[in-house]
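Q: I'm teaching a short session on how sequence maps to structure, and I want students to see two examples side by side rather than one. Could you give me a first protein with its sequence written out and its structure tokens following it? Keep the formatting plain so it prints cleanly on a handout.
A: Of course. Example one:
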Amino acid sequence: MNLVGKILTGIIALFSIVFMTLVMAVYATHQNWKKVAKEVETKLNEETTKNKALQDQLEKLKNDYAAERQQLLDAKKSADTEVDLVTKERDKLKAEHEDLEKQKSQAVTALATLSDRAKGLQAEVAALRDDVRKAEQDRDAKFSEVVKKTDELHGLANTLASLNRAKTTLTDELTRAMQVLNKFGLKPAPELYAGQPPHPVFGKVLANPGTGLIEISLGSDDGLAKGHRLEVYRISANESTYLGRVEIVSAVPERSVAKIIPEFQKGVIQKGDDVASQLQFSGVAAAK
């Protein structure tokens, strides 16, 4: 018997006791039984009505209890289902947790390995940075050297170009010089013309004091300098005579002093004789 049944039983027992008490009171007094019976009947009707109301309420409570009980059963069934699901989810999460713990342990081991590897790589990177720095320094030094060599090469190229231009100029000058030499019957041998003036000159003997020195009318203005050699000859109406060779010992702008070279002397040199850098007459050349 549940709680609602017990309550209803108590209520019925209570009303029974009350009714019996009323009956006994009526019986004991024997006064106005009709009125009393009517009052009792009225009270009984009231109590019956209350009892019916209570029964209806009890029935309603039973129905509510059954509905609540069914709801509780459904809720329990649903809760059991949810508990099963939660249990399965818990087991699944537990397995996942164990797997994650295993992965965590593996990750920690791998992290330690990677940390050691990272330290090794950092050392290698530091060494590589030093190598790169040295390589950059070597590159900069090589680049500077290349720039320097390039500048030197450009300088040499410019020098070579200048030398080539100078070579071309000298070649042209040599060609023209050879043409001049060929035109005047000269040979390209400087030693053959040692002591000769830079260009042909012609002058006169001004004096011969008989000391082995003579004075001539040619000087530094004519291009003469110490060491130059001249030929002395005499031209008359009937013949041309080679007299000898002299060497300049001193020169002033308009005149010079020359010494007679004994081994070339062919005659007495006198005032008025001709002096030239080279003989111009076949007759004189023959006399020489």
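Q: Perfect. Now a second example for contrast.
A: Example two:
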Amino acid sequence: MKQLIPMVFIIGMLCACGDSSQKRPEVRSVELTTPELQTTTIVKNYSGIVREAHNINLAFKTAGQIKHINVKEGDYVRKGQLLATLDATDYQLGVEALQIQYDQLKSEVERTTRLFQQQSISANDYEKAIAGLKQLGVQLQVNKNKLNYTKLYAPIDGYIQSINFSPAEMVDAGTAMFTLLDVSHMEVVADIPVGQYRLRNHCTDYFCRISGAETNYPMKLLSLTPKADGNQLYQLRLSFSNHPDNCLTAGMNVEVSIHVEDTVSSVKYTLPLCTVFQDNGKTCVWIFESDSTVSKRPVELDNIDSEGRAVVLKGLTGKEQIVRAGVNVLQEGEKVHVIEMPNKTNVGGLL
């Protein structure tokens, strides 16, 4: 009988240890997410017009009589293409006359140099001869330049919009001979009202569309004139993000769409649907606290967005960490363990 008492005591102690191990609280593992601010945009449409980057007035750099015009209005010209020429007879004669003088003086300077090396002439006479040759060389180069100026070339690619003179007419230096449309890049110009101008810092995207077409061309902001015209409108200039199709030409009417952030509506946040659960008829989420516990917070939902995420209207500040896995088995104040999400660049957690 005395031997049974210690055995019963030992068995009781083992049972007590087994019960205590079963009652040890289990720490659940959870995954976290953060609310994302939902930005809503308002689209404003305005009339615009396509125009070339700018017009260039082309002129000869010297005066003369027009001999040939090699293009006509509407022609597309390439950079470096010959557009027109002047009668260069007089300029050619001037170059030839100075070339003769230059060659003669050059021979004299060569003889003077040999005499100077033999100390037969003074240094002053030698320097005068050298200076005279350089001066005549400059005059010769000026006349050669004038001869080259009798030919007018296209400085860039573009279209000849207008021709202001005809062959055999006289033109002065600097008088516009052609008007060239620079189509290296196209622009869109639109006039916007005061209300849109005040929202200029909230504009996110710009697009343009040809009337009757479905293609939207993304645009980039070039400038917005800070001064209103007589109709209280501000000029908006946009450039194409990509090279536009050939169907877009200067002078074409387009519809400009401006996407503006909605600054009037209330702030909304989006969450994965798995973070939301019902508790006594209330919609709630679990908030991960700084002491590794979770607390229940009621939220007000607005709707479900196009990506299947819950849109939260009230109850969040945007700085919370919210449980996204295992929300239906958690208890208020329960301590949890956070599972770190794998990095997108570390697929499978191999690194």
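Q: What should students look for in example two?
A: Point them to this: The longest helix spans residues 89-117. Also worth mentioning: The longest strand covers residues 41-59.
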